[in-house]
């Protein structure tokens, strides 16, 4: 019986793969597939739905294990060499701080705009205790201006004005668009020719941030990862100040 179920499980997976490939092909190619294959798959599913469910659960578990491993590797690298994780990303706060907070954000995300206000207050209060790192994660399927805004912010960073530009984008989030991008650049006295040309080459750097976010299984924004003497991992915005306070107490105890 076990061998039969294993055979059925394998048959289902292979057959489903075949069906997926068939459905993704052009109509002319799909019509050349033997229709008996689809009937066989449906028959197996009807007679043994538990095998399909088990196969899906196994696949999901494998994906979760893969994600967990990727996050563990990231956190190990973050602990050993945070600068490698920071890379060329914009930073604010103290470069010597023991606590590094990485933010994955989207300029068109309303939750990110709210988080921006909280982070400004947090930095003002803990500017000597925290290094804030900005990573781009534009949610392009739902936010049409997320990528253009990220490109503009990246270009501003090439002239040392990222945080001023970021602040203006979030403050004027409802007006995101080409007029705003150029208006902010002018108000910050950016070299407009350089700004325009840098926007055209911003995708490579932004894509690196996006790939990191996907590798970590990040599904939405804002998303935070913190590395401090007493904690390392994903953290909610509401928990960040508590982690900073714990680090400060730890530092006082050491002295």
TrEMBL record:
Cross-referenced Gene3D superfamilies: Glutaredoxin
Keyword field: Disulfide bond, Oxidoreductase, Redox-active center, Signal
Residues in Thioredoxin domain copies: 42-249
InterPro entries: Thioredoxin-like_fold, Thioredoxin-like_sf, Thioredoxin_domain
Alphabetized Pfam families for the sequence: Thioredoxin_4 (PF13462)
Domain of life: Bacteria
Secretion signal span: 1-29
GO function terms (MF aspect): oxidoreductase activity
Family named by the database record: Belongs to the thioredoxin family. DsbA subfamily.
UniProt-recorded name of the protein: DsbA family protein
Protein source organism: Atlanticothrix silvestris CENA357
Lineage of source species: Bacteria, Bacillati, Cyanobacteriota, Cyanophyceae, Nostocales
């Amino acid at each position: 019986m076990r061998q039969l179920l294993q055979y059925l499980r394998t048959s289902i997976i292979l057959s489903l793969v075949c069906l997926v490939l068939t459905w993704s092909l052009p109509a002319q190619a799909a019509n050349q597939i033997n229709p008996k294959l689809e009937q066989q798959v449906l028959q197996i599913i009807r007679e043994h739905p538990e095998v399909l469910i088990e196969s899906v659960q196994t696949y999901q578990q494998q994906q979760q294990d893969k994600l967990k491993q990727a996050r563990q590797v990231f956190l190990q690298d973050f602990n050993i060499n945070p600068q490698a994780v920071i890379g060329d990303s914009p930073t604010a706060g103290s470069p010597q701080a023991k606590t590094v907070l990485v933010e994955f954000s989207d300029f068109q995300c309303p939750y990110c705009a709210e988080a921006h206000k909280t982070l400004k207050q947090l930095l003002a209060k803990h500017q000597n205790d925290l290094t804030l790192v900005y990573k781009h994660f534009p949610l392009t399927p739902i936010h049409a201006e997320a990528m253009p805004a990220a490109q503009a912010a990246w270009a501003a960073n090439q002239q040392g004005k990222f945080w001023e530009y970021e602040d203006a984008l979030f403050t004027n989030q409802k007006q995101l668009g080409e007029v705003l991008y150029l208006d902010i650049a002018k108000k910050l006295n950016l070299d407009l020719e350089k700004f325009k040309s840098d926007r055209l080459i911003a995708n490579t750097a932004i894509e690196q941030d996006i790939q990191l976010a996907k590798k970590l299984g990040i599904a939405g924004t804002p998303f935070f990862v913190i590395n401090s003497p007493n904690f390392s991992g994903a953290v909610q915005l509401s928990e960040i100040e508590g982690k900073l306070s714990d680090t400060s107490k730890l530092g006082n105890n050491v002295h």
